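Reminder: ligand-aware prediction takes two inputs, not one.
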Amino acid sequence: MEKIASLAKRRGFVYPSSEIYGGLAGFWDFGPLGVELKNNVKKEWWRFFVSEREDMFGVESSIIMNSKVWEASGHLKGFADLLAECKKCKKRFRVDEIKSKKCPECGGALTEPRNFNTMFKTFVGAVEDNSSIAYLRPETAQGMFVNFKNIIDSFHPKMPFGLAQIGKAFRNEITPGNFIFRIREFEQMEIEYFIRPPKNEKEWREVFDYWLGQIRKWLEFLGFKKENIFEREVSEKDRAHYSQRTTDLDYNFPFGKEELCGLAYRTDFDLKAHGLDYYLETPFPSGSEAYKTPVAKIIPHVIEPTFGVERLILALLSDSYDEDEMNNEKRIVLRLNPKLAPVKAAVFPLLANKPELVKKAREVFEMTKKEIPQTAWDDIGNIGKRYRRQDEIGTPFCLTIDFQTLEDSTLTIRDRDSGQQERIAIVKMTEYIKERLR
Ligand code: ATP
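Here is what comes back for the chain with adenosine-5'-triphosphate:
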């Protein structure tokens, strides 16, 4: 884990937040490569779960919502951790994480467990009183439920259909840690998939299994090693207050198997809580007067696949991190799926002190960048060092402009994983790379 965190810091993926002031526990900043990696993950998620489907509607709701949302959803009451406080050192611990009745830090006696709400509180407007209390959302899900009716009115979707959202969520975690695994500000990618009230258990279980299959497919697409993913049925006592069935997908992190993402059957808990229902499609054309007359009223049930972006990033870094030997030299390599790699191609002049090589290489760089925006320029150190640097950040292709380029307009293209180099005509190069990124 230290190796991954150190690589992430050194190469500009992840930095501690407000580091020059000593940082802030549970908060992290993403550097240039981290942002690209995150954006690639989010873009691919949106493509897989939203754009390529007909039954999915994207939304982006606000982070701060009317407090009544959290009252209705049960978060004000239920979104709490059971904590015990040490009478001596005053530190608080999650009861489910400690093994004895003594403080794990100083051995002092612990208080009886008490509920501690993990939502961040703030005030909206100039007056700080009870009427202006607001919360930073602890999940993106509620932003979709409260827009349920708006989507129905604007799009008249047929059942089943889903809402999807990517956005920040905040939780005042008691024990943030394990790098970016458990943090206090993070991003979620969630889907609320609405189905007709199931007539029997089989009906919702089928949809649940379908979504479990979609999650497996997506994790496979990202390139995770199969042996590092574990599916776990969450027992009733560990399930969230709204869930009738939850399957978590755990990843084999360097610190142990922990939740990566999950799938929950939220029943009709949320829509009911917000007093929302759905008018069954009428036989009349949408927009007509008759259309507005409901044939029957139903409250849909919900299946929810949910993902944390930072956890996926940590798992991806961990899964793709490798140390091997190439040309009798040790190297670190991130074997990231090329689609996710923050830099797709790096362009080098063989020698940085030969103006004719640099000029040609700049031409190639500018041309490539137009076609493949995530292209980088590197002319620092010798060619071996540049390869090592690009391997460390997972760049799938390195393009070198040498003296032969000046004669026959070809360059060498080097593959990250095998180290193999091929000569290829400059005019064919971007197509060659794009083909491998498809
Ligand atoms: P945990 O048991 O690890 O606290 P959870 O069961 O509370 O997680 P959910 O409420 O199901 O998590 O949240 C959905 C997803 O959001 C999780 O699968 C995870 O990827 C992500 N997530 C939740 N809490 C955090 C956090 N503190 N830091 C980073 N990601 C998080």
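The first strand starts at residue 14 and ends at 16. DSSP finds 13 helices and 24 strands in the chain. We will return to this case in the review session.
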